[in-house]
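Predict the assembly for these two chains.
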Amino acid sequence: MANEPGEMRSSVGRRTGWLFWTSMSGLGGLYLALIILLVVVDFQYASLSDIRTSLADERVIFSICLSLVTCTLAAIFSVWVAVPTGYVLARLGRDAIERHLGQKPGLNRLARFTRQSVDTILDIPIVLPPLVVGISLLVLFQTGVGRSLDQATQSFFSWIGFPGIRGITYEIPAIVLAQFTVAAAFAIRTMRNTFEQIDDRPELVALTLGARRFRVFHRIALPQAWPGVVAAFTLAWARSLGEFGPILIFAGTARMKTEVLSTTVYLNFQFGNLRGAVVASLILISVAVMVLIATRLLLLGGPAGRRR
Amino acid sequence: MIRIDNVAIQQGDFRMEELNLTLPDQCYAILMGPTGCGKTTLVEAICGLRPVSRGSIHLGQTDITRHAPFDRNVGYVPQDSVLFPTMRIDQQIEFALVVRKMPRNDRRKRVAELAELLGIGNILERFPQGLSGGERQRVALARALAFRPRLLCLDEPLAALDANTKSQITALLKRVHRQEKVNVLHITHSPTEAVELGTLVFQMVDQQIIQTAL
């Protein structure tokens, strides 16, 4: 009898615990079911023999290979830009600005304003409709600067033995640039959040131990940010794989030249071949899942990943 | 000798003016004061982690006021150790020596020497995750001592330790001060620590540093 109130509380606690976790995971579960359903209906629509036939098509193989190469390049460039940019944005908070510049109100205000402006500008590719990114890139490469870049790229590729690539616009570099333009913004945001969550005091201690800024960044900050680097890479890669609008406008959809998996889906759909579009979509999903799993397994064995 | 002359520091809306402090060689100085009076800010300024808006800081004959933290030769042990999370303990201790391009054998010798002095030989190959508070403080001390700094700043090194570990680390600090012949500036709230460790005791009151009797 003495234990009854306690038992009742414990039983109520178990019930509310069960209710809490069920309600919290319910919405996520519905979303998960939607994703699974989408993939399942795609698999039901196209048979295995359709997929086998598609994989025997050299056009499809070309677009798979081109997608893998361009997405990887765009993701590498995105992370290369995102790591230092995210670090600067994360570390130049109010305290850091005063720490580095001293208490100079005018200079502090200018630094804060610059940081906020840069932050906003870097978000533009995220909020812009993809088609606008493509059109803007196309217009950029109609200007003097763009043409010079086009020529310089053509010279570079003929110098390294790829005379077939005649500049950027409507060529393979246009795919990488279109993917990079959007993916880098996502990678920068990821890296900024990562560095913001990392305590900067170990870096300050490392400075007192005699290390210069570059070494502090390389030996202290970067190893801690490694899981964030992996996340930024995978996000940029996945974003590049799904990119379609800017590629369509800026790189075109020339078969066996600038056709990537997302444009294969579009071309098939455009020509009324729904089954072909679904098969290309399934290949796209399979490639994405395989590469993302492999990347995570491979990269999370890195310096910080091993201990997580 | 360490000399702080008329130093002014501003941190946000918090401002300290006309701070003066002189520490003779081989001293173990204790700096006490209420929470929020600016002790940590002053230590950060000495280490070069906060800019000084006026005044000067001399280490011996060298004016280090405008020196970057890496050029000051001042060791720093922050309040909660702040170990490097992705480095093994031996790598943390030899970090300052690697930066100074010390030959590998000399580095190993110094790490072994400090590990023996601080009683951390058994954890050299471990990472900081899972170390006890006392072990973390020992490692932070070893890391700051490795490059033989002229001044060692300790920011409340015993604050978060239990009574038993506190007395062990107190004894250790005495031994470190004696063996390493390093000047120490130790921030604390505890009069007991001041009596047990200090050769000089200062109080920070109303933004002034006053020497008090032990």
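Chain A touches chain B at residues 94-95, 98-103, 199, 201-202, 204-212, 215, 219-220, 223-224, 226, 303-304, 307 (CB under 8 Å). The longest helix of chain A spans residues 4-45.
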